[in-house]
Structures are given as structure tokens and as C-alpha cells.
């Protein structure tokens, strides 16, 4: 009799685990079906050892490319561009006197990978657009480069009296993943009309090392609030400052900054999934035992 009871309990536990696994499989299947795809920054056909050497990441908007963006790089860098809603990556590395190595990645392939000299201009054809990369200067530690996107028509600049203020706020000041960083940028235009601004995001650690630079262009009428997500941000744990600077008018600028901390994932978060599984198993076991007893009581009453 005792053996039958033990066998029955073992059978109930086996059924409970089986039902739990089925429920988790269904949950995982539906989660994959309905959860939006998360796209992360990847660099196809580029050796991992090369990626480890790249310390700087620039995210340059299409509008900024139309106006032209000129920057002096002081370390191997990745310049990410989003043109016609598609990501392209330009990697500048191997700095030497009067030359650098240039890699262009588009459509998931390495389309260009070779050495270019000072004053060289490389034009990449992107559908009906031309993206021009120019190397103005290079030595062993620095490279001055320029990116410009050419269209058939470029809208003319309009002069206005301009006076701006900017305020940055963070959704969370303590985060556990770099991609959780979300900033709310509030612009206030005190001028007489719409103003064109260049917006620079910088993420700097407490030692003053800059890990990320984002460049964007906007036309602001009066007051405007913008949400900025950092879906491709990859930085180590630590304390950081996000600095947002706008440039407008005749060499005018305004700056706002906030501090945040990137922390390791807490143990409670790591244990959350196993504890959830154990909880579901126990709950399922209790329900099955209860239903079994209820069924036996009904049969005994009959």
C-alpha cells in the first residue's frame, strides 16, 4: 500500500513537471511571436579582435550628414549612420602618418576595407544618395575626417534671431544594462522663428574618458521634448555623465548634463527566472494534489 502511495506521488510530481514544461514552452513560443525584435549593433565580417580595439562610437543622423560632419578622431572609431532607415557602419582604424584604414559595412556585408591617404575622398553610392568620406589629416594618434551626404536638392539656410535653452532628464538614474539608458531632452526656443540646431550627446565616465558621441540635427519651432534611446550603447559598469550640447546661430551653444550609474545585475534578478520556475512547479503540484483529493472524495461519497 505504501509503495502504491509513493508511486502515486512520484507520478503526480512527474505530471506536474511535464505540465510546467509545457506551459513554459507555450509562454516562450508566444513571447517570441509577439515580442518586437531587438536589433543590436553587430559588425559582420569584422574580426572580434578588431572590435575589441574600437573604443569610440559615433551615431550620426541623416540630417547631420546632409549638412556635413567634421570630426578629429583620437582613437579607432565606429561611425554609425542611419540612411533611409538602414544602418551603415564606417570603421576608421590603423592610424599612421598621412593614412588610415577605412572599413565600410552596409547591407550586412563589408563593402570596403582598405588604406586611404590624406586628402582622399571615397564616395559610397547608397541608392539615389552619395555618402562621401574625406580624410583631411592623419598621423599616428589622430585623424581628421569628414562625412557628407549629397542629395539632388539641399534646403537653403534661413537666418533668425536665436536664443536657446536645453534641459536633459533621465528616466532612470541607476540602470543594469547600457541599453536601458533613456534621456528626455527638452528644448526651449526664445527666438523669432524656427531654428536649426546641431545636437551632440556625450557619455563620459568619472575619469573624463568619453565612450560615446551622438550627433543629430533638428529644426525647433518653439518648445519641444524629445526622447533619446541608446539601443546600441555598450559601456562597462560605473558612474557616468550624459552631456547634451546644442550648437545654433552664430557659434552659440547651450549645455545640460545628468549623472547616472550602470550597475551589475543584482543576484535577485539573476535568481528570478529559476525561482519563478520552482514556484510554478510547486503551485502546479499543489493544485494537482488538491484536485486529486477532491476527486477521491467525490468517488468515496458515491
Radius of gyration: 28 Å
Strand order of the largest sheet: 6-5-4-3-1-14-13-16-17-11
Q: Please count the beta strands (DSSP E, at least 2 residues each).
A: 17
CATH topology of the largest domain: Tick-borne Encephalitis virus Glycoprotein, domain 1
- Percent of residues in helices: 25-40%
Please state the structural category. alpha+beta
Task: Note down, in words, how this protein is organized.
The structure is a single chain. 26% of the residues lie in helices and 45% in strands. It is an alpha+beta fold and 302 residues long. It folds into 3 domains: 2-36 and 267-301, no CATH class; 47-155, Tick-borne Encephalitis virus Glycoprotein, domain 1 (Sandwich), CATH 2.60.98; 158-264, Immunoglobulin-like, CATH 2.60.40.3880. The protein has a 10-stranded mixed β-sheet with strand order 6-5-4-3-1-14-13-16-17-11. Mean pLDDT is 76; it is low at 29-48 and 152-161.
Per-chain topology:
Blueprint: H1 2-34, H2 48-53, E1 56-60, H3 62-67, E2 69-73, E3 77-83, E4 86-96, E5 99-106, E6 109-117, E7 121-126, E8 129-138, E9 143-150, E10 164-170, E11 174-175, E12 182-189, E13 195-205, E14 210-220, E15 223-229, E16 238-248, E17 252-262, H4 267-270, H5 272-301
Parallel strand pairs: 1-3, 1-14, 11-17
Antiparallel strand pairs: 2-9, 3-4, 4-5, 5-6, 7-8, 8-9, 10-12, 12-15, 13-14, 13-16, 16-17
Helix pairs in contact: 1-5
Amino acid at each position: 500500500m505504501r509503495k502504491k502511495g509513493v508511486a502515486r506521488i512520484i507520478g503526480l510530481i512527474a505530471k506536474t513537471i511535464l505540465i510546467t514544461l509545457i506551459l513554459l514552452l507555450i509562454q516562450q513560443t508566444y513571447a517570441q511571436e509577439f515580442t518586437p525584435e531587438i536589433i543590436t549593433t553587430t559588425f559582420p565580417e569584422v574580426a572580434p579582435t578588431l572590435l575589441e580595439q574600437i573604443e569610440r562610437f559615433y551615431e550620426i543622423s541623416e540630417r547631420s550628414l546632409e549638412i556635413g560632419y567634421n570630426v578629429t578622431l583620437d582613437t579607432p572609431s565606429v561611425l554609425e549612420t542611419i540612411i533611409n532607415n538602414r544602418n551603415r557602419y564606417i570603421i576608421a582604424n590603423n592610424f599612421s602618418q598621412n593614412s588610415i584604414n577605412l572599413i565600410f559595412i552596409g547591407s550586412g556585408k563589408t563593402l570596403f576595407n582598405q588604406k586611404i591617404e590624406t586628402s582622399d575622398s571615397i564616395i559610397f553610392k547608397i541608392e539615389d544618395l552619395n555618402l562621401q568620406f574625406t580624410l583631411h589629416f592623419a598621423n599616428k594618434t589622430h585623424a581628421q575626417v569628414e562625412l557628407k551626404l549629397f542629395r539632388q536638392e539641399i534646403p537653403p539656410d534661413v537666418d533668425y534671431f536665436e536664443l536657446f535653452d536645453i534641459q536633459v532628464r533621465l528616466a532612470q538614474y541607476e540602470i543594469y544594462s547600457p541599453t536601458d539608458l533613456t534621456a528626455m531632452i527638452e528644448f526651449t526656443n526664445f527666438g523669432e522663428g524656427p531654428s536649426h540646431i546641431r545636437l551632440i550627446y556625450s557619455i563620459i565616465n568619472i575619469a573624463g574618458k568619453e565612450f560615446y558621441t551622438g550627433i543629430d540635427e533638428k529644426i525647433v519651432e518653439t518648445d519641444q521634448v524629445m526622447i533619446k534611446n541608446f539601443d546600441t550603447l555598450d559601456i562597462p559598469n560605473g558612474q557616468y555623465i550624459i552631456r547634451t550640447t546644442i550648437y545654433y546661430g552664430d557659434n552659440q551653444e547651450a549645455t545640460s548634463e545628468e549623472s547616472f550609474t550602470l550597475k551589475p545585475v543584482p543576484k535577485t534578478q539573476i535568481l528570478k527566472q529559476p525561482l519563478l520556475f520552482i514556484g510554478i512547479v510547486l503551485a502546479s503540484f499543489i493544485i494537482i494534489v488538491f484536485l486529486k483529493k477532491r476527486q477521491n472524495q467525490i468517488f468515496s461519497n458515491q
